[in-house]
Recover the amino acids of this structure.
């Protein structure tokens, strides 16, 4: 045994030594062939003869680059730079000596016309594999505008009311800057922190997983990312914005950001404090006139399920970001910290129609007032270390703490369609909750001696704890034949203590099988343990003191989930042409539930699953591409769904868990098509996605027709609901959309068009009868942004939403809703820096419940004067909701009910504000945009 151990150690040492020998650094410089000037930012990629990426860098100052410790052999060096002809150089790196520095000369793009050579204008857009790159100089913004004002003009890009970004019909998952993390705690902050005038290019990327980027084996996993490429002359200096505004009724908005850029070292601080429903910082967002970037204080749309912007909010937040590199760019560190404190006040009226199958539908009306305070701290870091060109370590720890307090008072009444009363309640709830979470991932990746042969090890771990305290007091009335039949009260206090931890490991190996074929093998193991203890004490009516523990409302529960999986994938790919991949994983999963109070109960379940996957990617041309994918996956139930404790915080809607739940098994199909017009920047994309789920975890609801005992000493009154999760098959969702964006040069405008359709088949159980709801909808949006110049910015848009809902329990009725939004934004700067701005927002709802079909016009306007030599300051008088008509209406739909609600909304106010923009780059003193960003071609 000892001999085998020594042999193993010798083998490992030999393996590590073999992977390190015969590796030489490769240095060089990328220059303009005409001016012989260095091209900073040029992309330098070293590939093997079989197109495996060995290393990839961006040229630094004066066009210099260095690829670390490249093994001896034959290679191709591929160099790209926007506006220049791509160049490929074949090189040989000998074993016995260091390679000589290279000088790569790039030729500008030329066009011959009548025997006269002229330099062609660089294209507005370029499609490079999974990246669509837009030249920022082709778009127009106001001077000192934020980055979102530029990004939203990119063809196929939208920014909604909450600041969420869609690109080519998909949600943007990350926003990075010069290829590096930037405010990963909240990527939307990047768009309000960076000014538009430092941006050189906008790249929309279908980003591969980091494992795929390293190994070269494309696993088909993608997420939409926007990379903001800054101008080289704006990468050293400091810049930012500060503003403060105050108005009547003590309304205020203040905050700012400060950025310090020194090459790779970048430090940013972002802060905001206001009581005008803004989570970001933008004085222009209040003043009006800013094009349709995300603003939390806009009126809510009918038909929306989003909960953002409800009620009145005051926000205080601080975020910081740090980036730097050391050891000749081998060590890269990014760190973020964010603090947020938000107070929320709501006053809502809700109408909900319960769909009850064979029984008559019930109609619930609720008036609710609530106040809450939520505070959070979040810190995360990424440390990436390139040991050499073949080895990389990546470590990402995350730490967060959150505290939430909420007080709610509500008045509910439930009746039948003929207005006969069923029940009524007056209820107050006080909740306190704190949560701590720590998680981290560690990845080690190694390229072996054969190009395309790699080994990767990843380990992810997490630990969390949660503590909660809840007080419930309610008076409940139950009716029978229009007469009060019974009255009861619920008064208790509940304590919740829970924690959990988990660890997941994955080992992957890739192997080239031929010139165009590769194989990947993987093995994963996971173990998670969760614990939850809930104790409920009733208040004694005689003394008002807490009594003994209520065993029926208390529970101590532990859940363990483990799985092992392994599989193979095979890939056939030809560079810039097509890629086909098929694979299958086998998963063995086990769930063990252990309830130790009030009675011991141990349950276990065992699942085996085959998880196939397939993907086809085909490039019709350099600028047209299609991807078709299929993937199967599983989803385990959470401890909140499993713990079978009775929760009667709402006595008319009592809930519990189900320890017998199975894990979900789903199928996902996807299709994406994208094409780009290089000269104009026109972009057309199509996305189709379909999801099908077996054993989907849904709510099974029992609605009592009469008083029903659901547990010893737990009575569910007539009309009350008892909800428990169950597994049901048959859910599916199909969504499709197309986006098109293009400039119309004669009119000096950019046009964005989007059409989307969907069909959801939601399923559930009501009184043990299967129910389903079919939802159909269509959405159409037309957006127009001007290209007149930085002094006149005009934006117009139309959005229409039409939806139909049908439920099998009430096939004779359909619920059709229509919502349309028309918006116009204008900002005009003239004579010595006077700026006037207006934003008109028309919202129309039809098909909601009585009293909710409202239409209103929201009008924001401002008058400002730019100050100082470079007009970097401005004093502004702004008005929000001049007509005092802002309304907050929302519709939500599921398989059990259709709900319309109206909440308190922020209405008319005025602010007097002062804004200052800071610019200082290089050593030349203060700088700033003169006349704003260039526009047109």
């Amino acid at each position: 045994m000892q001999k085998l151990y020594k042999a193993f150690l010798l083998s490992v040492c030999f393996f590590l030594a073999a992977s390190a020998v015969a590796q030489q650094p490769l240095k060089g410089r990328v220059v303009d062939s005409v001016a012989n000037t260095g091209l900073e930012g040029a992309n330098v990629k070293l590939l093997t003869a079989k197109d495996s990426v060995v290393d990839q860098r961006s040229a630094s100052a004066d066009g210099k680059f260095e690829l670390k410790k490249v093994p001896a052999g034959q290679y191709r060096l591929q160099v790209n730079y926007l506006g220049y002809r791509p160049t490929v150089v074949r090189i040989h790196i000998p074993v016995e000596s260091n390679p000589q520095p290279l000088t790569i000369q790039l030729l500008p793009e030329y066009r011959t016309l009548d025997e006269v050579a002229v330099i062609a204008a660089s294209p507005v857009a370029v499609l490079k594999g999974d990246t669509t790159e837009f030249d920022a100089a082709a778009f127009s913004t106001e001077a000192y505008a934020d980055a979102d004002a530029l990004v939203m003009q990119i063809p196929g890009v939208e920014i909604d009311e909450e600041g969420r970004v869609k690109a080519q019909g998909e949600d943007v998952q990350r926003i990075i800057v010069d290829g590096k993390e930037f405010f990963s705690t909240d990527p939307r902050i990047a768009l309000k922190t960076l000014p538009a005038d430092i941006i050189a290019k906008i790249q929309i990327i279908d980003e591969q997983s980091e494992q795929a980027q390293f190994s070269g084996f494309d696993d088909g996993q993608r997420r939409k990312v926007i990379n903001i490429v800054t101008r080289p002359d704006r990468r050293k200096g400091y810049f930012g914005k500060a503003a403060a505004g105050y108005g009547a009724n003590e309304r205020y908005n203040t905050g700012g950001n400060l950025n310090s850029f020194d090459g790779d070292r970048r430090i940013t601080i972002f802060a905001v404090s206001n009581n005008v429903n803004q989570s970001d910082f933008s004085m222009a967002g209040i003043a009006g006139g800013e094009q349709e970037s995300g603003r939390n204080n806009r009126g809510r749309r009918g038909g929306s399920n989003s909960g953002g912007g409800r009620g009145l909010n005051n926000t205080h937040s601080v975020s910081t970001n740090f980036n730097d590199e050391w050891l000749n760019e081998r060590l890269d560190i990014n760190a973020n910290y964010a603090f947020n404190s938000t107070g929320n006040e709501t006053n809502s009226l809700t109408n909900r129609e319960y769909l009850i199958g064979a029984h008559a539908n019930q109609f619930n009306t609720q008036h609710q007032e609530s106040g809450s305070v939520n505070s959070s701290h979040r810190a995360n870091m990424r440390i990436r270390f390139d040991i050499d060109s073949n080895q990389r370590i990546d470590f990402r720890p995350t730490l967060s703490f959150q505290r939430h307090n909420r007080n709610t008072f509500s008045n509910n009444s439930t009746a039948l369609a003929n207005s006969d009363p069923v029940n009524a309640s007056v209820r107050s709830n006080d909740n306190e909750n704190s949560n701590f979470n720590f998680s981290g991932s560690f990845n080690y990746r190694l390229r072996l001696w054969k190009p395309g042969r790699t080994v990767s090890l990843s380990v992810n771990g997490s630990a969390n704890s949660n503590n909660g305290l809840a007080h419930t007091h309610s008076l409940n009335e139950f009716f029978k034949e229009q007469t009060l039949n019974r009255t009861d009260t619920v008064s208790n206090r509940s304590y919740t203590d829970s924690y959990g931890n988990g660890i997941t490991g994955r080992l992957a190996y890739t192997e080239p099988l031929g010139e165009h074929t590769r194989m990947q093998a993987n093995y994963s193991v996971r173990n998670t343990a969760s614990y939850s203890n809930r104790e409920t004490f009733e208040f004694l009516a005689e003394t008002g003191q807490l009594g003994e523990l209520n065993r029926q409302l208390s529970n101590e529960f532990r859940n363990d989930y483990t799985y092992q999986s392994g599989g193979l994938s095979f890939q056939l790919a030809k560079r810039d042409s097509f890629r086909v991949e098929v694979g299958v994983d086998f998963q063995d999963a086990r769930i063990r539930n252990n309830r130790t109070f009030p009675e011991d109960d141990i349950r276990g379940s065992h699942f085996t699953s085959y998880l196939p996957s397939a993907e086809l990617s085909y490039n019709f041309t350099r600028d047209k591409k299609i991807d078709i994918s299929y993937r199967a996956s599983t989803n385990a139930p959470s401890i909140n769904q499993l713990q079978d404790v009775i929760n009667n915080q709402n006595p008319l809607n009592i809930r519990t868990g189900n320890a017998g739940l199975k894990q979900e098994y789903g199928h996902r199909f996807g299709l994406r098509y994208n094409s780009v017009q290089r000269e104009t920047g026109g972009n057309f994309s199509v996305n189709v996605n379909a999801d099908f789920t077996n054993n989907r975890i849904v709510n099974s609801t029992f609605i009592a027709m009469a008083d029903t005992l659901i547990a010893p000493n737990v009575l569910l009154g007539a009309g009350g609901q008892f909800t428990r999760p169950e597994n049901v098959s048959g859910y599916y969702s199909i969504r499709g959309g197309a986006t098109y964006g293009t400039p119309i040069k004669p009119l000096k405008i950019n046009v964005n068009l989007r059409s989307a359709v969907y069909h959801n088949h939601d399923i559930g159980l009501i009184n043990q009868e299967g129910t389903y709801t079919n939802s159909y909808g269509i959405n159409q949006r037309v957006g127009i942004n001007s290209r007149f110049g930085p002094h006149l910015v005009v934006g117009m848009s139309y959005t229409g939403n039409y939806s139909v809902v049908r439920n099998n329990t009430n096939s004779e009725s359909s619920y059709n809703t229509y919502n349309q939004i028309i918006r116009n934004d204008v900002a005009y700067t003239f004579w010595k820096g006077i700026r006037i701005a207006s934003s008109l927002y028309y919202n129309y709802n039809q098909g909601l419940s009585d009293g909710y079909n409202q239409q209103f016009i929201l009008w924001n306007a401002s008058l400002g004067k730019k100050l100082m030599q470079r007009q970097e300051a401005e004093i502004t008088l702004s008005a929000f909701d001049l007509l005092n008509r802002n309304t907050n209406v929302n519709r939500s739909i599921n398989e059990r009910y259709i709900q319309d609600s109206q909440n308190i909304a922020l209405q008319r106010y005025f602010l007097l504000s002062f804004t200052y923009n800071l610019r200082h780059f290089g050593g030349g003193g203060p700088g700033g945009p003169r006349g704003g960003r260039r526009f047109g071609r």
